[in-house]
């Protein structure tokens, strides 16, 4: 984190900023689209990771607002298992660090920097890491790179972002979704483990739902595959072609 970022953080509310949830985020997104941009209907919504979870929420909260949604690297279940554990660990690492100072820090809290090193490992794919970290020197370079990434991030922003996921739970409302849903996950994503078979179990509840779990490889990046669209763009094409078919309802 730069000195400028620190000064900006101290000038703001820091940990005094009001708490919010994913539901609040989606409601504000809807207001931005409909009231500020004056767009009454969307052709498609595509979201990745947190944005993917928000896409599930859009489909339930505003069922007539779009022709289709494509959640990428997300699951339509509440925070639980590994996805809950890493969030709690990072939150605890930040809050327990004396340098955090109840959100009024002047340098990146060490708890956040150390926590991100583990997070950065989890967010990548196991086969990919096996290739890029063949020895101790490579491991040191990976850790140093993770440290630099963490230093550029405001710990309070991360804290609020992770806390806001507490109200996320689209599972009970899946049967109410009227729009088309194409869910895409990656088999080497440790945050949304394929071995839980969540999409296989829950997508039949979505009237117009499809899903695909893309296999991992030495050239994919686990959860971070989302940042490499060349590896999954063909599925976006499939989604858009599907939307070009007759819609499930006359939305527009």
- How many DSSP H or I helices? 10
Number-wise, the strands total 4
Low-confidence stretches: 1-10
Whole-number tally of structural domains: 2
Spatial separation of the terminal alpha carbons: 46 Å
Percent of residues in beta strands = 5-15%
- The assigned structural class equals alpha/beta
**Over all CA atoms, what is the radius of gyration?**
20 Å
In CATH, the homologous superfamily of the largest domain goes by the name Alpha/Beta hydrolase fold, catalytic domain
Major sheet description: 4 strands, parallel
Question: Could you name the CATH class of the largest domain?
Answer: Alpha Beta
The fold-level CATH name of the largest domain is Rossmann fold
How much is the average pLDDT?
92
- Helix and strand element order: HHEHEHHHHHEHEH
Question: What is the architecture of the largest domain at the second tier of CATH?
Answer: 3-Layer(aba) Sandwich
Defining traits:
alpha/beta; 45% helix; 10 helices; four-stranded parallel beta sheet; 4 strands; Rossmann fold; 2 domains
Question: Could you give a quick summary of the protein structure above?
Answer:
This protein is of the alpha/beta class and 252 residues long.
């Amino acid at each position: 984190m730069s000195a400028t970022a620190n000064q900006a953080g101290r000038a703001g509310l820091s940990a005094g900023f009001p708490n919010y949830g994913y539901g609040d985020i989606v409601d504000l997104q809807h207001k931005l689209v409909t009231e500020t941009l004056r767009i009454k209907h969307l052709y498609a919504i595509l979201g990745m990771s947190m944005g993917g979870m928000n896409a599930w929420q859009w489909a339930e909260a505003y069922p007539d607002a779009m022709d289709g949604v494509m959640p990428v690297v997300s699951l339509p279940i509440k925070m639980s298992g590994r996805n809950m554990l890493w969030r709690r660990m990072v939150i605890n690492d930040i809050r327990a660090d004396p340098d955090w100072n109840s959100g009024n820090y002047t340098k990146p809290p060490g708890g956040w920097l150390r926590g991100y090193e583990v997070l950065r490992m989890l967010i990548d794919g196991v086969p990919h890491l096996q290739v890029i970290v063949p020895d101790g020197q490579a491991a040191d370079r990976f850790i140093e790179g993770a440290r630099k990434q963490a230093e550029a991030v405001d710990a309070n922003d991360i804290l609020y972002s992770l806390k806001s996921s507490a109200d996320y739970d689209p599972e009970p409302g899946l049967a109410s979704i009227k729009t088309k849903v194409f869910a895409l996950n990656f088999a080497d994503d440790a945050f949304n483990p394929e071995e839980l078979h969540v999409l296989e179990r829950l997508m039949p509840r979505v009237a117009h739902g499809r899903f695909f779990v893309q296999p991992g490889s030495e050239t994919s990046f686990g959860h971070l595959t989302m940042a490499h669209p060349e590896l999954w763009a063909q599925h976006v094409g499939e989604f858009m072609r599907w939307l070009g078919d007759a819609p499930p309802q006359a939305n527009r």
